[in-house]
């Protein structure tokens, strides 16, 4: 599991590669803690290379979103595989998160 942070004009794009599960969730959270402490206003999380998300992974993403909203930040998820998108639909989290089909759309819709 790896997180790559890619600064763009007025936002940050984060690429997560691998599984977001009980073992990797703490690392994902730690990767975003610095961005949140800096009050990064806009973050796009590219999930194109995420192969699996479990309940702790979902909880981590919800926590990141909650922490960003506490200071007025916004987060979008992009490039979900059909399997991951289905998980968000089943858990009704697609109503909580701003989800875009691709990274470019997520960036332009801010």
In short:
This protein has 110 residues and is α/β, with parallel strands linked by helices. The protein has 4 helices and 5 strands, in the order E-E-H-E-H-E-H-E-H.
Explain what the structure shows.
The structure is a single chain. This protein is an alpha/beta fold and 110 residues long. It has a single domain, classed as 2-Layer Sandwich (Transcription Regulator spoIIAA). It contains four helices and five strands. It has helices at 25-37, 55-69, 82-90, 103-108, and strands at 2-7, 12-20, 42-53, 74-78, 98-100. The protein has a five-stranded mixed sheet, with helices on both faces. It is globular, with a radius of gyration of 13 Å.
List keywords for this structure.
110 residues, Transcription Regulator spoIIAA, five-stranded mixed sheet, 39% helix
